[in-house]
Design a protein that fits this description.
Layout lengths: L4 H16 L8 E2 L6 E5 L7 E5 L12 H14 L7 H4 L3 H14 L3 E5 L2 H12 L5 E5 L4 H9 L3 E5 L4 H10 L6 E6 L11 H10 L3 E5 L14 H4 L8 E5 L10 E5 L1 H10 L1 H4 L6 H16 L2 H20 L10 E7 L1 H13 L2 E2 L2 E2 L9 E6 L6 H17 L7 H8 L2
Parallel strand pairs: 3-12, 5-6, 5-7, 7-8, 8-9
Antiparallel strand pairs: 1-2, 2-3, 4-10, 9-10, 11-14, 13-14
Amino acid sequence: MAYSDKVRGVYQDTLQKIEDAGLFKTERKIFSSQAAEIEVEFPAGAPRKKVINMCANNYLGLSSHPEVVQAAHKGLDTHGYGMSSVRFICGTQDIHKELEQKVTEFLGTEDTILFPSCMDANAGVFEAILTDEDVMISDRLVHASIIDGIRLSPAMRDTFKHQNMEHLEQKLQEFENKRLKVVITDGVFSMDGDTARLDEMVALCEKYDAMLFVDDSHSSGFIGATGRGTHEKYGVMGKIDIITTTFGKALGGASGGCVSGRREIVEMCRQKARPYLFSNTIAPVVVAGVLNVLETLTKSTERRDKLERNSDYWRKGLLDAGFVLQPGDTPIIPVMLFNAKLAQNFSRDLYDEGIYAIGFFFPVVPNGAARIRTQISAAHEIHHLDKALEAFIKVGKKHNILGKSKKEIIEMYGL
């Protein structure tokens, strides 16, 4: 069928329904590098405005750090712009192997394989290592990219209630006779900011002879005493069978990801993971930048420590002001609003006050769980946080939600 008026009308009607429901997502155009303050045009055609960014994954403030940029320039000069190929043909350089070794050392694993993104890593790993004789048991709130990877695998799949170890144990008992069992979780759950109880999960996996998979994208570089991740936080380094993570958040903020863990699993990915076999290698400029980041983080925990102080300061300020927050101890601090249109209006009002913070709503989060997900950075100074808090309080008063409970907000605005 040609792209007729009928076809066009179907999509126009669908998009209108999305907009009418308050679920339409609008992108903002940024004219500066990623930082604590960015220059934004919103809405389209409006004058550019400098705002404080409170919702980036730039946890360690390294996305535009001069030393990282300089290292990237050097990588561009010495190793070129791109490889124009996949790894097993002619797409592997010395720095790719060097980065795999450095990541392995940093995470405390046996081996590492690079992917174009962590989404690609999650899309490739399960299909590469499992068959229809196996089972995957995932936390019900795992990231969308993990869900996509699970769907691609021939293995049986099931879930356990979020963070519910009793339910997980029931599932492990139920599937005790499967050839291989993999328990799957995020390290830090990106929408809520809570951390998986990996010590308990490791104990269960050891008891029932299961592997443990952790996506640590919102953890690598800053969670744990030296920023190694949630496995460091919970004292189980060396006991996680499969870790996936990204270089697009704390570890430089550009792109790229990896599978790190048991050497046989890494080798299976090298042989069979489709996103690895059929996607171009990570650009040399990105590899050079990540290598610089890992060197910086290995030398000092200064940025990780500052991030922790900033996060504690911001959470306390919001709680004292009377906002409803998700509990947690990470730099992901969601301000719960529950209603999608309220979240969008709240975000627009914050922008008017010079604060850039995006509303999250269905299908990114469950229906009735709309929020402003704030994310703190080591690039933030206290004056940034104070100004942002002042704006949040002003907008909170405007919408009459300060000091209100979840029930009261829902009664006022609905789900």
